[in-house]
Specification:
Blueprint: E1 2-7, E2 22-27, E3 32-37, H1 47-58, E4 61-66, H2 71-79, E5 83-86, H3 93-98, E6 104-106, E7 152-153, E8 156-157
Parallel strand pairs: 1-4, 4-5
Antiparallel strand pairs: 1-2, 2-3, 5-6, 7-8
Length: 158
Amino acid sequence: MCIAIAITLRSQVAGHFGKAAAFMIYDLQGQFIERIENTGSKELGCKHKKVIQRQLSELGVKEIVLGNVGQRSLGRLLNAGFSVTKVPQRSSIDAVMTGKVEKEALTTAEQGRPCKRDKGDCGCGCAGKKKPVPIKIGTTMNRKSTIQGLTKIGGFTL
């Protein structure tokens, strides 16, 4: 069994699972095993979270320690059999491994952070189709057409 800690670029506990810079993997004795870089990008949408989940599973990770996680991601992690623990954001890895920080076990998806964005439930826009842009009538003119027969309008020469 291994533990994965979501970290920032400064090697502190990341404030968000999907936006973590990397994941540090440790065994139960606190020995470092591996570092997994988060290569998430907007092109992938939420798929990078599934890639991370698969990588963690392949390494035998059973517990994920993080600062915060969205409801949908938390639900996916719990359904995959991971134990998810929340600790204060920006905690040091040493404090997490030695038990010097307060830990909260997350057991239901509702304990995750609700989505604040309107693009989709995940925030990246991949959850649903984009709404069509409403057509504004009378605000644009076909540039290929020409006005014929008018030479003056209100004192302005055309």
